[in-house]
Amino acid sequence: MSMLKVVIHNIAKLSTRGTPNRSRSAGTKLLLSSEETAEGMFLPKARAFCNSTDLSKNEAEVIKHENICRETGKARTIFDFKSYMLQKIKSVNQALDAAVPVREPIKFHEAMRYSLLSAGKRVCPVLCIAACELVGGQESMAMPAACGMEMIHAMCMMHDDLPCMDNDDLRRGKLSHHKVYGENVTVLAGYSLVALAFEHMATATNGVHPKTMVRAVGELARLIGPEGAAAGQVLDLLCGGKSDGGLEVLDYIHRHKTADFAEAATIVGAMLGGASDEEINRLRKFSQCLGLLFQVVDDILDVTKSSEQLGKTAGKDLLANKLTYPKMIGIDKSKEYAQNLSIEAKEQLVGFDPEKAAPLLAMADFILNRQK
């Protein structure tokens, strides 16, 4: 074994010594040494060696999932995902409030703001910003697109709850949009938000080359359109009340209906940040796994949590006899599938700057472990 391999193994042992039973997650535990000597001497070599072709699988996994450089007895620096999300959500909410002010017709703009500004996870806009920052861009470059993503997401929720779709009375702990404003206004406010999403993205984005902007707009339109999220929604409706569609059909529905939204947010953000084609391809795989993970967990929560815990009607998929992962493969297999999707998503981020990748890695953990 080479001297460099010995060094890597020794650091790996130091990183786990004294805490053998402590579970760790690559998504939330970015291990950084506070000692300049360890940071300067070992971490660059470990990363370089991890990228070489002769590194064994076990050694690569150690570096990949732990970022192991630290000194015995030193406290680890853990990425604070909660603070990160609160800060990003605050920025997104402020930008959304400014993007859709109350103007004439006042009642209609209030209707547009009702679902758009309701309390939510803001997963899509945060994905957009985090992907932009991952490849060297700035939050300001991605914010108009991030707002556009949330406008489109709000429209989907508004329309999903309509009687002709999922027929739900609750959303995010409040009355669904059509229960407050009527079905006709919900339809009009929804497609107005989609139009505004593209207008805002095209006119408010600064610091991005026009060709890149056109490419990003086209990518977003493709992923929410008839070959993207809309295709998944249509097949979901066609399969309504039929539970014999098979796992392949279920995967198709959610890889489009849900995962294409995560892909759109991530890829658009990466494009605006100046990502290379290779980076875009890897982030495409990451976001597809992440989006599908979100849906698998959603299906699990639908049958394990109450309406009060979820902030929306629980058990409605079961009552509607819809295709879900727990119905197709059971709760335990669904949880195992979710775990595997989380791991696969994280693997796509190996090789990116660990500090910049930390929000996306943590997002995978957040989605996997969410309770509503």
TrEMBL record:
Key words, A-Z: Isoprene biosynthesis, Magnesium, Metal-binding, Transferase
CC cofactor: Mg(2+)
Lineage, broadest ranks: Eukaryota, Viridiplantae, Streptophyta, Embryophyta, Tracheophyta
Pfam family, one: polyprenyl_synt
Gene3D superfamilies referenced in this protein's UniProt entry, alphabetically: Farnesyl Diphosphate Synthase (1.10.600.10)
Domain of life of the organism encoding this protein: Eukaryota
Pathway(s) served: Isoprenoid biosynthesis
InterPro entries per the UniProt record, alphabetical: Isoprenoid_synthase_dom_sf, Polyprenyl_synt, Polyprenyl_synt_CS, Prenyl_diphosphate_synthase
Xref: PANTHER family: FARNESYL DIPHOSPHATE SYNTHASE, GERANYLGERANYL PYROPHOSPHATE SYNTHASE 7, CHLOROPLASTIC-LIKE
Name used for this protein in its record: Geranylgeranyl pyrophosphate synthase
Family listed: Belongs to the FPP/GGPP synthase family.
